[in-house]
Amino acid sequence: MGIYSIRVRVLSVAKALSIQAHPDRDLARALHALRPSTYRDDNHKPEMAVAVTEFRALCGFIGVQELKDVLRTVPEVRELVGKEEAAKLLAAKELDGGIGVKSHLQSAFTKLMTASEETVSEAVSKLKSRLNIESKVRTLTKKEQLVLSLEMQFPEDVGVLSAFFFNYVKLNPGEALYIGANEPHAYLSGECVECMATSDNVVRAGLTPKYKDVQTLCSMLTYKQNFPEILRGDPIQAHVTRYTPPSEEFEVDRCLLPQGESVTMSPVPGPSIFLVMTGEGEIRADSMLDEGKAKVGDVFFVPAHTEVRIFGSGPGCMQLYRAGVNSRFFS
């Protein structure tokens, strides 16, 4: 049996984070061997974001029909993609989601992402001007409103244009998004609890002043065209919902405990990290010498096979999260 280590953190996103992807294990090893100063380890980095507030993100490529609509209605994107690549995608059949469409999508996306800074700057300027004019006579789409917001945050950035290629995802509190290897994504706004495999490997290509490795990102992506699955978790007992992603590294429990209520969380076979997001109460476990007063921002480490008793003392609802190794790993 292998050994897994995970990370858990709270993200409060006020400004869009970069368009990025995380390599799979094989690519991570290759990148680390080739450029260890940039890619500092050889592990993959699947991750899951559980929304604490309304949370918005870009994730994965839009479907064939929606992509055709973009090429027909967004001349600035069509111009950077080029007539030849645009024509190939416009001729693609809705159900022809095989190697051919993926190849055309990769070619078109790569042309967009590798366009010169001058060309991108001009295209973004045209887009901004056109949408500002059109907003006076029609209601802009949510995606158009988004790209104008991104342009204000990252002027002249190719990520403003590439946003048209991605699914625009909104999570309500308690919903989650899993992001596997080689899938493009960008967190846009809101707060989430993020759990991931332990790695620092990030391949960025837009919406960032940091180092961009555009060629690597364009070559590594899966180019799957489907809307990502929204995870709503499974209730495992009163007040507790469990989010179990495809990755066997980690899982997350969300506990919403009203004032005056209590819950006993059953032992799990691996160690856990508990994080208090809202409210206050007490956490008791055999591993603790004393009962632990719990308030916003507190973090507790709980060893494997330990029963945890939680009491909500208010005011309001106590919201806390448990992150640990996926239970499937031990089965």
TrEMBL record:
Domain Phosphomannose isomerase type I helical insertion as annotated: residue spans: 80-165
Pathways involved: Nucleotide-sugar biosynthesis; GDP-alpha-D-mannose biosynthesis; alpha-D-mannose 1-phosphate from D-fructose 6-phosphate: step 1/2
Cofactor field: Zn(2+)
Annotated Gene Ontology cellular component terms: cytosol
Catalytic activity of the protein: D-mannose 6-phosphate = D-fructose 6-phosphate
MF (Gene Ontology): mannose-6-phosphate isomerase activity; zinc ion binding
EC class of the enzyme, as a word: isomerase
Similarity annotation: Belongs to the mannose-6-phosphate isomerase type 1 family.
Protein name as annotated: Mannose-6-phosphate isomerase
